[in-house]
Amino acid sequence: MASEMASLSTPWLTLSIFVPIVCGLIVLAFGRDDRAAMTRKLALIGALISFLVTIPLYTGFDNTTAAMQFVEKASWIQAFAVNYHLGVDGISLWFVLLTGFVTVIVVLAGFEVIKSRIAQYMAAFLILSGLMIGVFVALDGLLFYVFFEATLIPMYIIVGVWGGPNRVYAAFKFFLYTLMGSLLTLVAFIYLWNVSGGSFDILTWHTLPLEYTPQVLIFLAFLAAFAVKVPMWPVHTWLPDAHVEAPTGGSVVLAAIMLKLGAYGFIRLSLPIAPDASAGLSSLMIALSLIAVIYIGLVAIVQDDMKKVVAYSSIAHMGFVTLGLFIFNTAGVEGAVVQMVSHGVVSAAMFLCIGVLYDRMHTRQIVDYGGVINTMPRFVTFFVLFSMANAGLPATSGFVHSRFRQETVIRQWSIREARHHCGRRNRNHTPAILRVLESDYGFECECKERVAEET
Q: What is the Rg, in whole angstroms, of the alpha carbon atoms belonging to the chain?
């Protein structure tokens, strides 16, 4: 690799990616089932080091600028102008930290549960951690695609080897859904490389003056990949199967991190590269999001398997994320990002709690549990707390993003009502609506002066 590395004292992003990958390879090479204690400790040390190297990203982050920070750039494939280009901003930073933290928790959670192929299990999660961080920090389109697709391999192995009775079916379904959806994304990347004059730089793609029709095609190509990964209705059917059959650690990483890769793709690629198409197709995205929220929420209510309840509720929660992104205002995007981080923590905790119960009772049927508080009072306290956070109880992280969503939807509805009345020149209601919007939201209707003149 020809070195054109930006001037950095320490390449923290490279370390964040490759430390867990190297640690995973070390565990794979030296870990053995007959030395289980040593293998587990080695994996935990690797996970802790991997998390620690992400901390300087937070402590050294400058929150006064929206520019990419900790940027690293080196030539990778010179013939096609492909670069090893990394950077973080105020959005991707949190997902890097979350990935490192969740990996430590997953390794700890597998200490006593995994009895066979311990080294392979731990190594798969460490390698997966590095690949997912690579997705969040990649600023080169081809590099992003490589990391995005490579995450499928460790998760496919985790579900297929350590999963439940139908693990092979669930693993194949997960792999095929996500792989097939991503193929069109590669086509879009090649098109963008061509129209940008031979560049895979994502930030350069953000500035391309594309016509509306190419934007629509690019948006749909991205949608094919990111909608499956989120997942959005109706391409969500792989997720409940994967969650039910995956081991506890697999469910935790799926819910906490991997679902966020799709929503992050919308933020990093779809919205800035195809803004006109995103706005033009926003009604479609909002409709699909609302179906996920309402219909999938109702499906979750009737489940009798605890994992399925959380799996379907995750689809509904991610529906709120896409809803916030495509309503197109600041509160909506802020709420979506907060929801992604909050859901990453809360859903991971929910699956860990279910894993604790399953390891002791070997059943996930809700009807089989009763009076758990009598034998595990402290555990139940935390389980209820996480459940309430999942439901958006005030004073929990779930409530914060629900407040953003409420403000977003009310604001957007009010704006549309004002414009509707402006168009009709309704003298009785329009001035009042405008006064409310101006006082509460700072909104100014383009026909305000004309309405004032007519009234």
A: 23
